[in-house]
Amino acid sequence: MDWNTMKTAVILCSFISTVLSLPISLDTSCKQEMSNTGSSVVSCTFEFTNRGREGYCLLKRNTPLEGLASPFITVSHDGVPLEYQGIDFYRFPPERHDFVYLSMGESITATVHINDMFTFSSDGIYKIQYTHPLWYFPKNKMGSHIGEIKAIKSILSNEPIYINIKNLQQLSRPVKKELFKDEGVQLEVKGCGMVTLLKGSKKERNSVLTVQKRLCSQLKKTRSTISNSDLYRVWFGEYNEERSNKVREIFQNIIDGLSSHGITYDLNGDRCTPAVPAYTLTNVPSTVYLCPVFHQFVTTMDCTNIGISSKESIILHKLSQVFGSTQNYNVYGQDNNKELAVTSPEAAVTHSDSYECYYCHSYGHFDHMIYM
Q: Which terminus of the chain has a smaller tally of CB atoms within 10 A, N or C?
């Protein structure tokens, strides 16, 4: 079958959804089309437009403007959601280059192939909806220090779009990364399962192993501190039984996951950037990828320097995602995480940073530092 015949054999289906009530609006369109490789793809285009009366700086993180680097949409078929099969970065607070400036009336567009992060299971109608909040701030605050800016958070109430997938056998799927664990070093941490260390220098491996042993000795102690206490309320908000049980469950899932499945650390991940110390791939279980900045620039080993990311806090953050299915909400730093606990405790108990903060502060000799 030649290219033109294959192209006409695929039924293209494109719908457009527009949100006009916010300063930053979003138009979304999706279609199934043939790629240069002879397989079909689900191509979605997202157009962000400044419809306000002044210029705005839009955070690119967790949007298609940075590519396929986060689950900014949901996809479902017959009411059943498809699992996101992509990357999840550990993030430091955003810098100026993480924003894009849109003047009045200006638009910016990104096109991605969402079949690279979702596996479409059969022919039929699929529902696609943009779900991640947008973060932006007015131009007149652009001169301020980024860390001090209170960005506006807008949850888009846009209508979903629908696409009719045909000829599923031609549709490409997410690529699953293969790991060769027999090429690494495998060690058992007492009471905490197997640790596999791939790549890296001897010094880097020893450092990660030291952190892992420290985590294993502290996790059960941290779980035991969960109660109606100041420590809990600072990071997870108003105490109630349902939310506190959720926190206990997530810490227990980390403990059980390490004991039952072990953990693999790839000490030289191939998706690293200068600003990313670690990441996970949702379709590669029980694995954390570490980056050069983790080894070179994160100088503290443990949580003794409160408020500063450390090797221990970064790994705990990623373990909460690997085994506890926590999420990132574009909330960075201790002050902002405390505010999240007050304003949205339901989000705090599923927020990766909240677990990182709580874990580090759960060391008994830090308690007096928090509440002075």
A: C
Phi and psi of 242, rounded to 5°?
Answer: -65, -50
Condensed to tens digits (0 to 9), the pLDDT of residues 116-149 reads: 999 999 999 999 999 888 888 887 765 544 554 5
For the chain, the straight-line distance linking the first and the last C-alpha, in angstroms and rounded, comes to 73
Query: What is the rounded CA–CA span in Å between residue 329 and residue 309?
Result: 17
Torsion of CA 44, 50, 52, 57, to 10 degrees: 120
CATH code (residue 304):
3.40.390.10
Whole-number Å distance between alpha carbons of 30 and 161: 8
d(CA 301, CA 311): 5
Cα–Cα–Cα angle for 308, 309, 312, nearest 5°? 125
Gap between the Cα atoms of 185 and 206, Å rounded: 11
* CA–CA separation, 236 and 245 (whole Å): 12
In terms of residue numbers, what domain contains 197? 185-362
- Residue among 371, 360, 357, 188 nearest 263 (CA): 188
Query: Which of 23, 109, 110, 118 has its CA nearest to residue 73?
Result: 118
Q: Residue 348 falls within a domain, yes or no?
A: yes
Residues of the chain with pLDDT under 70: 1-21, 141-157, 177-182, 297-307, 364-372
pLDDT per position as a tens digit, 57-112: 999 999 999 999 999 999 999 999 999 999 999 988 888 889 999 999 999 999 99
CB-CB contact of 49 with 25 (8 Å): yes
User: Rg of the chain over CA atoms, in angstroms?
Assistant: 22
d(CA 315, CA 303): 11
pLDDT given at position 84 = 94
Same domain, 216 and 317: yes
Cβ–Cβ under 8 Å, residues 329 and 351? yes
Q: What are the φ and ψ backbone dihedral angles of 70, each rounded to 5 degrees? A: -170, 160
Give the chain's domain count. 2
The predicted pLDDT at position 304 comes to: 60
CA–CA distance, 47 with 29 (Å, rounded to integer): 9
What CATH number does residue 102 fall under? 2.60.40.2970
Judgement on whether residues 62 and 99 belong to the same structural domain of the protein: yes
